[in-house]
Amino acid sequence: MRAEHCAGEEQESSPGLPQGSFGPRADHGPGPGPSQQHREWHHWLGRGVVRLWTLPNTLLGLVCLPLALATGGGAQWVRGVCEIYGGAVTWLLRRVVPLQGGARALTLGHVILGRDRRALALCREHEHVHVRQYERWGPLFIPLYLGWSVWLGLRGRSAYLDNPFEREAYDAVPELLAEDERWLA
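Predicted structure:
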């Protein structure tokens, strides 16, 4: 029986094992390593676990989808994230987010809310750092973020710009920080 090796060379495979199997050979020597199919399966399994971990926050963001669509807004799928913009979302970001002038964009799990497509394009890299933070912290992200903001505010510092979650996001896109400092001034 012949099987394709990851590098494309043909190799003997053991009877009874599926093609592309991996791990130690019968002689306990090193095997060819994980097959491409196995790596893809692990990737999708891992992504599924991450999606479940962030699901409560993502669902909170998805509540805005019908609101946006019913009020003239839109949605798009970019880099594995649902971006919702315009309509009622614009109003929410301007009026409900407790920042002077509101927010241009806000992330909830795997959903990024934006005032419009231009705001999403401008803030996308920054907001994707928040997506990764949600993936790391899951349902703990919002309480941790708010806790830091309250703590910093009580200490006389900026509850937004000094928040460690925002610092990490701005470190990834430093040119956005100067613009946002003007935006929030």
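Summary: The helical segments are 36-62, 64-70, 88-95, 117-137, 141-154, 164-172, 174-184.
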